[in-house]
Inverse folding.
């Protein structure tokens, strides 16, 4: 037995016991004839005090002291010793084990360490590149261990919950068929079938539908998914989805199931009791009130429409926008006028132009019972009063106004709203807000490709009451789809699927996917729909993002053990790497042109 | 709500209730003015009886009867009706719901079905190719659903068990680095880094060791692994491993943890109470007594050595074998002499020659108090008596004898032993036998490559007491490795790993892996070993095989939802498939030569 206890376990009840601990030397403090070390493992830290009382004799005490002084940070130690209760007032409140310390009898150096490039016990971190290269050291940091333990806990709770409800976890293939609809696939050349490729799954969508057709009734999988996209800050080439599907269900059934899961997670992971059902908001409402389909509802600051006033006013920018069928909308930051100097507003304006393509950013400050701003001169008193009233502004408030297309004003005002709320600390960053967004449009028009594209995916069913609109007004047809939004992030989404072969064909045809293409890409699903597909629907949660939100972190890389960089490289293993000619030859492929530099 | 109950749920206690069920029309039987249908879902089958008493009136009953007669096998139906207790003696014992039937009030056809190419309710199955092409229909068969539910249950029990013990489930990357040691990798071309490749993991071995170095202490993952090998009957290009690793452990700790898991699985899945610790056998013992390192211990029929007798006898084949330092060994099938006619023995001999490369297969039958066989004439009475005594043969027994090298005789006698035990029904196919094999050799000599190769893998530690042998007699050095064997299958295996950088380098050097190669392939592990690696070890179970054994099935394809063929093709989706030129161009690769035919 290497150890009798972990480094997080001992309390004053253990006083007098002889224990053996193993762990890393977190740090060491020498003081006269004493040496204090903190021994660290995943479970906590225990102080071991090397003093003249250590060991069985003064000679042993001295030998132990000499030995521990040869140890350095991150050495792996085994300490046998007696648990000593610290005197009253001498507890270390910073440690869960702070009521005790260990008086060593034996010290074994299990392994040594060079000076580590990432030091787990020091809050100052090196660059993220160094952290990623020495990930095994970065992962020794208690914060990282906590984050991954929380991720484990989320998944365990989810598995217990779904198991209780009769879900079966079924593994679907990683080596699948490339279906170029959607994002770019990662491809895997086949050796046996020269010139052919597998694709890594972007999601198990088709397989989970097939499992419903196969009668599995309730399916869950923690599924690795792959997308070869140019990565944004919060994306990874491989990511994990909590993937579920249910048969003989309506939207209400799936959302109700998910409400129960979210409530359990909130309670067990965050200690929050949620009221169920979770609140719901229509997509149209979310865009109108927040400019975004995943609004952060931890704070208000809703968008306020001024288009009707703009239509009548004399200010040509507003009036022109309104006349062109576009929108003039505002967000108001209460009491924040002083915080936005002219210079700060200029910076905000440049930022909005650059990030959202707006032509300008107007503002009003509430002062002296009226609204003040450079553009105020374009408005007569009546309009100033009407705007002030609509915006419910008082002295000290500041309003930002965007006059642009609906889409651009949504993007810009959502961005502004999030930025202002953060800058003005309008919410407790430790608080949580959960809600559903429903009534998404089924289709949107892709002006470039001149065709309808599926907002969700081509297997999503329309709301039953909207199905007829597919023939008359496809734009107005709403989907039986739902997204779960947490703190302004889309944490997951799903839909009721099409189980009717004729309707599926109709949707493919609306999406301009011809019969041959449909057959080639989704033939096996279309086949399956001919043999008794049950009504079914499901949902998928983004586990990386969910864990990030629950852990209160800003980057999904902090909840992934071995993440990749924005250039999809693993700085620790050096993946992707060069391979032997022989390997490529066996796969019947050849590299056309190669990157010059090493990554 | 689509349904109030499942098709497996109703009992006589429900009599009188109005219920709604959904499911597939399993089969239909018409009889006069009656129609009986069996409605099937994952949970069971319920009989719905369309009779003149159905519906609210005779007219409705007639309409329901007409409607149900338009339905065919595998139609998806929703039935609302009253639960009726069947009269005493009228129960259907074949159904768990056989105490009741449902008298329908409403019938909704939720979906139709063409005539299915695989019929779930019919025991006669089409060819496996058809089953794989229409896998979603094959998976409707209750046997397949049971097998996958059992697989789910195994994993759930494992997760509960490891969670209780403080294991964290951590996901390791799928897009890793190619390390051509071992089996062939599946490669994934990188788009961002032209000419470079990711490799899909053959196992998370290095990552789990890094997690130990990172201080995770106890790790578990249900890990998808990939090997691009020419497939044998029981292999798949992607397979699933229950992968575990622990820090500060000896072999005893890992085996003890696994004993507990196996015992829990045996109890909860199979209803068997196991005695712990599970029995252990050394590798040398297993090879000597069974000719195999994963012996089936559900029956005896141990190998019996005759080499010492052979050395003295006059029969030149035996004597020559013994003199050359090779072995003469036998298996005895008690009371089976009559079952092996001369013709059957000839067939067995050809089979052994073909499969194991033996030169011949000798036999003796016990009869008239002595041994009879064509070769008996080469032995005098004394030797016949000695052989008879050694083999403990009596009249009616038959012994098969192989005179060959140790390796060949092991292979052949293991094959014979398994074949005879099956033919002679020496064991209950529903019984289970669990054991550990330990004391494996650390290295074996690869005569072709003229170097030592690792029997387990190059990260396996030697037994502490054997470590010095690495310098003096590497062949004799035993590894701190262990395999778990169930019913003659290796269900999993593991080892204590090397945590000492110097020892790891020494092993690489023994394996003829030079510094540069080691650095290139495993550099990040060697790096990590410099920064305080704890003593650690682990194990991996083959989930597919474990589920197959527990389900009492013969093929791992029957416990995998969407398996591939022996040529690594998915007959349902058509993977692998052709991809667009554009996709290849983005990846900077070109196909050198392509397979002619479609798969």
């Amino acid at each position: 037995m290497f150890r009798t206890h972990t480094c997080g376990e001992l309390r004053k009840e253990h006083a007098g016991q002889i224990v053996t601990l193993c762990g890393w030397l977190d740090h060491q403090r020498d003081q006269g004839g004493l040496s204090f070390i903190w021994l660290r493992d995943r479970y906590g830290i225990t102080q071991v005090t090397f003093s003249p009382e250590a060991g069985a004799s003064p000679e042993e005490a001295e030998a132990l002291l000499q030995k521990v002084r040869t140890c350095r940070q991150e050495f792996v130690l085994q300490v046998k010793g007696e648990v000593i209760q610290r005197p009253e007032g001498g507890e270390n409140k910073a440690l869960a084990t702070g009521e005790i310390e260990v008086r060593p009898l034996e010290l074994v150096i299990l392994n040594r360490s060079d000076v580590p490039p990432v030091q787990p016990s020091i809050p100052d971190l090196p660059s993220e590149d160094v952290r990623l290269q020495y990930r095994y050291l970065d992962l020794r940091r208690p914060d990282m261990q906590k984050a991954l333990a929380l991720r484990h806990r989320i998944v365990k709770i989810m598995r217990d919950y779904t198991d209780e409800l009769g879900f079966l976890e079924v593994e679907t293939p990683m080596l699948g068929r490339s279906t170029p609809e959607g994002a770019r696939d990662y491809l895997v050349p086949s050796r046996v079938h020269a010139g052919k490729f597998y694709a890594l799954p972007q999601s198990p969508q088709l397989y989970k539908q097939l499992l419903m057709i196969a009668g599995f009734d309730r399916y869950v999988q923690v599924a690795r998914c792959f997308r070869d996209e140019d990565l944004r800050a919060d994306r990874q080439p491989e990511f994990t989805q909590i993937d579920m599907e249910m048969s003989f269900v309506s939207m209400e059934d799936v959302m109700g199931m998910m409400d129960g899961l979210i409530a359990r997670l909130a309670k067990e992971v965050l200690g929050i009791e949620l009221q169920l059902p979770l609140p719901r908001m229509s997509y149209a409402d979310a865009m109108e009130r927040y400019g975004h389909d995943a609004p952060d509802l931890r704070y208000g600051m809703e968008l306020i429409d001024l288009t009707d006033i703009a239509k009548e006013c004399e200010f040509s920018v507003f009036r022109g926008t309104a006349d062109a069928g576009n929108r003039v909308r505002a967000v108001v930051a209460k009491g924040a006028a002083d915080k936005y100097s002219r210079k700060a507003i200029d910076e905000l304006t440049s930022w909005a132009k650059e990030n959202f393509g707006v032509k300008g950013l107007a503002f009003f400050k509430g002062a002296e019972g009226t609204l003040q701003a450079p553009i105020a001169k374009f408005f007569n008193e009546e309009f100033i009063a009407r705007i002030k009233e609509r915006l419910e502004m008082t002295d000290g408030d500041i309003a930002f106004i965007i006059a642009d297309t609906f889409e651009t004003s949504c993007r810009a005002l959502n961005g502004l709203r999030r930025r202002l709320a953060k800058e003005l600390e309008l919410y407790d960053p430790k608080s949580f807000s959960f809600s559903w967004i429903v009534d998404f449009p089924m289709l949107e028009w892709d002006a470039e490709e001149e065709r309808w594209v599926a907002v969700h995916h081509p297997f999503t069913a329309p709301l039953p009451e909207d199905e007829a609109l597919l023939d008359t007004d496809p734009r107005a047809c709403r989907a039986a789809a739902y997204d779960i939004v947490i703190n302004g992030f889309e944490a997951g989404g799903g839909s009721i699927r099409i189980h009717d072969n004729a309707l599926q064909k109709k949707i493919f045809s609306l999406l301009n996917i011809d019969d041959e293409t449909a057959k080639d890409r989704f033939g096996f699903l279309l086949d399956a729909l001919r043999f008794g597909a049950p009504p079914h629907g499901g949902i998928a949660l983004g586990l990386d993002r969910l864990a990030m939100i629950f852990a209160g972190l800003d980057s999904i890389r902090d909840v992934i053990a071995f993440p990749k960089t924005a250039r999809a490289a693993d700085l620790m293993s050096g993946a992707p790497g060069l391979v032997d000619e022989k390997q490529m030859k066996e796969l019947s492929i050849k590299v056309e042109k190669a990157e010059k530099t090493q990554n």
